[in-house]
Structure formats: C-alpha cells, structure tokens
Amino acid sequence: MPAGALQVHHCAHPAQVMPTRGSAMKASVTRQGLTVRVIAGTRNAIIAMDLQDDKRPGCLGFSIGRMDMGPASSAPVAGEFRWLPNMLRFPSDLQGGGTTLTAPLQKFRWGDYTLMPAHRYRFTVVPRYGAPGQMMPALSPTEAPQGDGITLDVTTEDPTHDETFVHFNRAAAASSAFNTKFGDVADLAANTPKAKKARDWLSNGLKEALLAYMKKAEDNTWALHGAIYEFQQVELLQGLQEAIGRGVDVKIVYHHRHKDAKDTTAKKNDDAVKRAELGTVAKPRKADPQSAIMHDKFLVLLKNENGKLVPKSVWTGSTNWTDGALYGQLNVGHAVFDEKVAAIYESCFKLLLDDADSSTMKQALATLTPVSLTLPAGHQVIPILSPQSDDTMLHLYASLCEGAKSLLVSAPFALSPVILKVLSKKNEQAVRFMLLDKVGSLGGPEEVNVIEGDPSNSIAVATTLSSPLHDFQKKLLEGNESFHHAGIHIHSKIFAIDPFGSDPIIVTGSANFSNNSTVVNDSNTLIIRGSTAIADIYACEFMRMFEHYHFRAKQAGKIKSGKPMALSETDAWSAKYYVKDSKEERDRRLFAGTLS
Length: 596
Fold this sequence. Notes:
Layout: E1 15-16, E2 26-31, E3 34-40, E4 45-51, E5 59-71, E6 81-83, E7 85-86, E8 98-99, E9 109-112, E10 119-131, E11 134-136, E12 150-155, E13 166-168, H1 175-182, H2 193-203, H3 206-215, E14 222-228, H4 234-245, E15 249-255, H5 265-276, E16 282-285, E17 297-305, E18 308-317, H6 323-327, E19 332-336, H7 339-353, H8 358-368, E20 380-386, H9 392-403, E21 406-411, H10 417-423, E22 431-436, H11 445-453, E23 457-461, H12 468-480, E24 494-497, E25 505-509, H13 515-519, E26 523-529, H14 532-561, H15 583-592
Parallel strand pairs: 1-12, 14-15, 15-16, 21-22, 22-23
Antiparallel strand pairs: 2-3, 3-4, 4-9, 5-6, 5-10, 7-8, 10-11, 10-12, 13-19, 14-17, 17-18, 18-19, 20-26, 21-24, 24-25, 25-26
Helix pairs in contact: 3-4, 7-8, 9-10
C-alpha cells in the first residue's frame, strides 16, 4: 500500500442512528483522515466522503457497499451484502467494473436510490489504492469487509408517520431502471396489468399516499374539502366517490377560468367531473380575473366533534390530479397533521367555495396568513396563501436565499427578478444547486451567464431522450396537460435553505416563485423550519433528480466531444476537489459535513 494510504478499521459497534419518529436519519464518522456521512431520506440516501489531503496520494476512489438490515419496526437482521454499481470503467480494464468493488467511485458523494421506507441499512466505504485490477485492500465480491473502511448504520424515514408524510414520484430520473423493468410494455397507457404496474412504479407511492390520505375519512363523521387546479385523474376522483359512499362530506373547488381559447383546463375538469359523477360535490371556480389560475392542490381532512367540523390535517404540494402529474413531471405531495395549519387552509377553502373575487381574497388572506421579511425561530410550519396584496413573500424568499450557506432550488418556471437578483450575486461562502425545467428560469442571457459562471452555483436542466418512458411522458405532458405547463418535466417548487444543518428551512407547495403566483393566482406555500427529517427527505429527492439531469448533460458533452466517460487510472481525479473555493471543493465539504 502506498505511503499515506488509509487503513480504517471496522468498529465493533458501528455508528448508528436509531429510528426515532421525526428525527434526522443521518450518521457520520471521522477516523484516520476519512470522513463518511450518510443522509437518509425515505427511499434513498446520500453517501458522502471527505479525505484528508495527505491520504489522497495513490487513491483511485471509493468502494461502497450496502447491507440490508430489515424493517425499522423489528430487530436488525444482517441481510445480503452487495457493492453499489458504477457504470464507468478503467480504460485498461474495460471488462471489469459493474460495481464500485472493481470500478471505485471517483467522486466524493454517491446516491443510493433503491432503498425501502422505514428500513435499516448498513453502508461501508473503503478507499482503494494501487493500480486498476490490483487495488488494495483486497475485498470480497460478496462479503462485507472486516477491518477496512468505515461502516455506519442508518434508518430511512417512514412516510406513513404524521411527521414525515412526504411523497415524491419517480419522474424521468428513473428512465434507466424503468427501461430495464418495463421496456417490454408496448403501451404504457394501456389498461393491462403490466402497464398498470409500470405506472404505479412511476408514481412511487405518491398516488397511493393521496388515496390513503382520503381513506382517513372513514365514515359520516369525517369530511374532505379540497381546492384542485387540474381535477381529472380517474383513480383519485374515484377515491372521492368512494369516500362519498362511506358517508364522508366531500366538497371540491376546481379551476374554471378561461384565459383564452387555448386554455382547455376548465373543459377537461368539467368532463372529468361528469364522468366521475361528482357534479353535486364539485364546484367550479369562476371569479374574475379570468387570467388568474386557481392553482391550489390541497385537501383538508376534517372531523365532526360535537356537531362541528374541526380541521385536522391538510394535504398539499405541487401535484395536480392528472396522469401527467403522477407519472410524468417531478412532483411532491406533503401532508401536515396540525389543526392550526389545517384550519387556515379550511378558511381559504371557504373563500374559494364562495367564489370570492381577487380583492376579497387578498384582504382576507392578508389577515389569515400575514407575511413579514423575517421568520420566527424554532420548529414550526408556516402557511402562506395567495393572492397576496404585495410581493413581500418574494422578498422573504430572496432574503432566505441570500443568507443560505447551502441552497437547493427547484423551479419549473421563471423565477422572480427579486430572487434572481440574489442568485446573480457572487457569494464565496455559499453552495447552491439549481434544478430547472428550462434554463430560462434564470432570466435572460446576461443573468444566465452570470449565474452559470459563479462557482457557488451548480445547475441541472431537464432534458429528454427517446425511449418508451420518455415518449409516454412526452405524450402526457405535451398532449394531455394544461397549456400552462405543457412539456414541463420539473414541476416541484422548492427552496431548501441549509438543509443539512440543525436549523433547515424548506419552502414547498403549489406556488411558483413568481409575481403571478404571489399577487394574481390562488395558490399556497408551506415554510417548514427546524425539521431535519423533512429536510433530509427533500434533499435526498432533490439530489436524485439533480444528479440524473446533471449526469445526462455531462454524458452528452462527452459524446459530442468524442471522449468517452471513463475512470482515471491515477489519483489525478481528486485534484479538482481540493482547489480552494472551487465548485468541487465546496461540494465535497458540504455533503461530508466539513464545510464551516
């Protein structure tokens, strides 16, 4: 083994984060110059490494292994051990590879997107030294190392718990796995068992979670009151019909404004309501201005207590009730089980049910969810409802972004100039990741150049490929979706401010970060402060999508240049991660938790 090579021994009692409802499922160990941190979400985890500078010589990367330890609800049981995959190869060993055992990871973080919710996992990270085909330490293909590397245990979050009831669909990032599993399905829209299984796989529990949320209304002592922009998905509307059959008081408001002749959303909603026979419980939102969108997607759960309906919880997020929202776009559904928050949404629902005009809405919402430029400290959930009378909420978001040491941004449409002004400023202390549907979300060419040129910023833009999955999604999003977001693949609206710290802030909901969403449209946002569990879920899902599109762009660039992507046969791969203040250095230290 070369001088300076690292030899870290497996501890008798590996670092472990025990499953505690609502707690952060993170684990971190630093020993003999190596730091490993694992951040677990619901169905995925980020594995991050940092290597002391004097341990770099001769290091060819990291082998990463995983052992499944069973459900969190039972005692840990050692399961099968396997090395995580790596698509890249050493040029001198093209027959090798397939996993990080023989093709070590040459970067300082990796995402494992094949986990189960509420399960225990044991991860092992081993730095590898020497030469391709002769790396040290020698490791077994099927057994966990005994004496090399760092091993730590984590538990994924449980999305059925009230505190972590958050669900993301798979969207386009699952294309490779989808094509392997369902590449033989000729028509993904068909009413066949295999096609249905494929759609359910794409939903990733999002549709199922919303249906399960509806079933919490068990009988005639419960109510479901909702405001839904695109109100069309057959199974979801059937879920409401089943609730009515149980005696549940169901009331829905849906978008019915007519911006122009191209806006067919109202007709599609009407047709779906008629097919589902929901005309007696679903009411169209028609009040002026017609250019405004009833952009909400929330559902309040209420319980009859002593003859009075009491709001208990609310489901919200970015997910419209369409096939495109469930199987095509990236979306999130998020339920908050808090009576005060639910009561605010119920008050908004009543305004929408009365078809209040814009002036009435603004006046009422200014009292219902007042907005200031500062957030109170402490763990809390703050709803903000639109339309607002001014753009204070945009200035609040800009202020949060400006103060963030680390920032994740997911934006389907153009960001407000108020926010772009902050993102255009160089910040040597910040690390920012931006997941965009179109590069135009960053403004005009000049603003784009400034933001892209800042080493603080890493940007991924949605792109499409020709495959059965992408052809299916293209048809959903360009043929069947509302003209307001035809062709949109990134539909989640998220700010994650310092998501890996002790006081994270998550901004999520139906509202885009634009002037129209703030002062024109009916929409809503949640600001969640202090929940490290929620932040972990959002961060892991965000990075899943970000890495998919970022890798796709990098791969396309290599193909265009004629240079295939391959592993370095020396330790030169790591040099860029140690250039002071470079994008790569900040990335390495942020995820490993060593960025001050």
